[in-house]
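We modelled the chain as a single entity of 227 amino acids. Its sequence is:
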Amino acid sequence: MFCKFCGEKNPDEAVFCKKCGKKIKDEIALSDVENNKVQKTEISNTSTIFGVSCPQCSAGSEFCHPVVKTNVKVTGKFYDICDGCCGYILLGPVGLLCGACGSSVKTKTRNETWWICQRCGKEFMSKQSALERANVSMWMAALYTLLIGSCIGHGIEEPGDFWFDAILVLIIVGLWISIVKSFEDRTGRKLNDLLTYDESHLFWLKYSAICAGSITLGLLWGINTIG
């Protein structure tokens, strides 16, 4: 049994917490059903104090341990075979060095914090890391929305296939819905349940602004291109 005040583990028969000394259970005997209710209440209170709980089994932070996962992305090229072959044809063996011209490799490292529940084995991303991932996804979705919106803008001035435009609209809708869905899948909770009121308000404000802005700019871009 865990103390609902400090989270310290105590024997099941304990009435007072051995760490903080506060009363954690009435002295009267409880049935098995009531014991289960008390345990669930203690877990809930503990997770409220420490701010972390498992979304699957509701275990408190004493069962949840943080793990930092590092994602490394390497972009660029070491050697271009086509340039090397062309250089060999034009300059001979020395021309093979042309394949190394302009070669560059960039490494991007991103750290994300995940929690692992020791009770049920559930892995879920921390709120901060999930928000950072959502922000990146928003800007990527905005780029695709801008390009797709320009195609729809062409259809406004030059009416074409209705079904083609309808598919493009569905793609945009799917892009933006997937951002929220991915956030909830990674954290295991509904977005509005995990974020505070201010955090939720700021998130939806940014979400709406980027979405509406990219659609508007895309449509204007497509219309002005034709004009």
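As a brief sanity check on the tokenised model: The chain is about 55% helix and 15% strand. Helices lie at 32-50, 81-91, 127-157, 162-187, 191-194, 197-226.
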